[in-house]
Amino acid sequence: LGFVKKGTISSAFTVPFFIPQLKVMRFSAHIPLSIGVTAFGIEQEGQQGVSSTRLILAYGFGKEDYSFGGSLQLLQWDFGEYGQAIVPILDLGGMIRIIPDLDIGISFINPSLSYYTINGTKEYLPTTLRTGFRYRSSEWLTFLGEISKTIELPAFLKLALIISPIPAVNIFLGTSPARSEISTGIEFIGKKWIPGFGVRLHRDLGLSMNASISYSLGCNE
């Protein structure tokens, strides 16, 4: 977040495994400040009966060689006849630019061990530590990798490539072997608009799709 130089407004729509009841809608805005960058977001998942709504306020600060920040989220669960729950969540993260083309980052999701209570039972939200890298080997090829570890679950690896055959097009290829997933996507970078589309294939659960659109408050190069 701290590396963001231009304001953007974005929205995205995801349908996991093509199950409409699991659809996820997101809206966010990034606003550069005189010192740092702030971001606002809202995310809605599911449908009436079982759904969640997440409000997000984030701040990041960065220089040429480092960036750090965090977000405070307010998550509301609606369990239909079983009631509702509202939970605050804290996320923290940072990134260091080791050399001009190599970034190393780490994030800590829910370090406060937030939980909600439903029918007298405590349910803890996942607490996850992630570390990863981004290496731009050339103007048309970028490598990414991430290791993610959630409490009580095994760590898993994600790998990805970003291929840019021309400056206005990015093609994404990704895999998570432990989760039996592969993914691909594409985005087109205009002077103001950036539309994107992607699909993810899980060996057992099938296809998921994602579509997004972003509007830049400055001109993209």
Task: Give the SSE layout.
Layout: E1 8-15, E2 24-32, E3 37-47, E4 50-62, E5 66-78, E6 84-99, E7 102-109, E8 115-118, E9 121-124, E10 128-138, E11 141-150, E12 156-166, E13 169-176, E14 181-188, E15 193-202, E16 206-216
Antiparallel strand pairs: 1-2, 1-16, 2-3, 3-4, 4-5, 5-6, 6-7, 7-10, 8-9, 10-11, 11-12, 12-13, 13-14, 14-15, 15-16
Structural summary, described in words:
- With 221 residues, the chain is mostly beta strands.
- The mean pLDDT is 91.
- The strands form 2 sheets. The chain has a 14-stranded antiparallel beta barrel with strand order 1-2-3-4-5-6-7-10-11-12-13-14-15-16.
- Helix content is 0%, strand content 70%.
- A hairpin with a 2-residue loop joins β6 and β7.
Which structural traits does this protein have?
14-stranded antiparallel beta barrel, mainly beta, 221 residues
Report the biggest beta sheet as strand number plus sense, adding barrel if it closes: 14 strands, antiparallel, barrel
Compute the average pLDDT: 91
Helicity level, as a percent range?
under 10%
How many individual helices? Answer: 0
**Low-confidence sequence ranges:** none
Q: What is the alpha-carbon Rg in Å?
A: 18 Å
Give the neighbour order of strands across the main sheet.
1-2-3-4-5-6-7-10-11-12-13-14-15-16
Broad structural category = mainly beta
CA-to-CA gap between the ends? 19 Å
Q: Kindly estimate the percentage of residues that lie in beta strands according to DSSP.
A: over 45%
* Order of SSEs: EEEEEEEEEEEEEEEE
Number of strands: 16
Which descriptor suits the 3D outline? globular
